[in-house]
Amino acid sequence: MKQILLNLFLISSLLSQYNAYDLNHYDYSRDSLETELSTLMLKSFIIPGWGQLSNKDPLWKPFIFFGIEVLTIGSAIHYTKTSEIIRNDFENYADDHWRLNLWYDNTKIIFPDRWNEIIIGTHKIGLQIDGKYYFSDNLESLVQQYDWSQIFVVRDRDFYENIGKYDQFVGGWDDEYDNPFDGVGNWYTQKKGSVESVILTKRKNYYRNLRNDSNRYSNYARYAVSAIMLNHLISGLETVLNSNKGNSFNKNYSFALNPYAYVNEGGVQLVFRW
Question: Which residues of 202-220 are buried (b: 16+ CB within 10 A; e: fewer)?
Fold first, then answer.
């Protein structure tokens, strides 16, 4: 026991002579290199190509990264604006050509044996009466208490989706009515898959096309934003992986699939150390 205590005393005495804050104990060249490369990577994370330009890489490198940045940002702005313009168009079109009272009356004609079941349906649109909110599955009782002029449709995202997507709401379109179960005229039935059919009107079909166009451009905008993020990431990593300084630098990176993570969510993990 005495020998152990003596050894601990000697070790403590030796360590007390070591100044952990003395910079002479550290490798300046390695710290400087790592700091410089970290700065280059940070620059390219902020503006793609900036790190390559500061690193005096061939000019085509920063031009490519910066060019992709300009192109993808411009694309994201363009597609977002286009999607919004078309969204305003299809919403205005629906406001002009879909009416609640027509939906109620035409549903009774289209589905005479089960119109009340269709009105209740599996999907709902919001209604507002005197500042109070209801859903369309209560429409039958509401029309017994209020005039149509007192019942307002809540024209939110669900409303614009439902009237174009589901047969339940087809009766609200103001096309001149004709047989909806043939393949001609203002109202017609169209095959959807091998067994399912969808009831359309000319105005509903035009509305659906507008809405699909808006959604398509919105997806393009999201793809462009993803490309922007990827360009920043690749530009930052490229400054380190292909540094032309000629110094010895420990680059360690790995790619792994972790199906069981500590936070109970799996995924793909990219680890990069410098």
Answer: ebbbebbebbebbeebbeb
Cβ partners under 8 Å of residue 158, min gap 6: 124, 125, 126
126-154, pLDDT tens digit by residue? 999 999 999 999 999 999 999 999 999 99
Spatial neighbors of 7 by CB under 8 A, at least 6 apart, are none
Residues linked to residue 128 through DSSP beta bridges, in sequence order: 133, 152
Residues 129, 87 share a domain: no
User: 21 lies in a domain?
Assistant: no
**Alpha-carbon distance values, 69 to 41, 63, 105, 107 (Å):** 16, 10, 54, 52
Domain of 184, in residue numbers:
97-206
Establish if 14 belongs to a structural domain. no
More confident call, 195 vs 189: 189
Question: In this structure, are 197 and 238 located in the same domain?
Answer: no
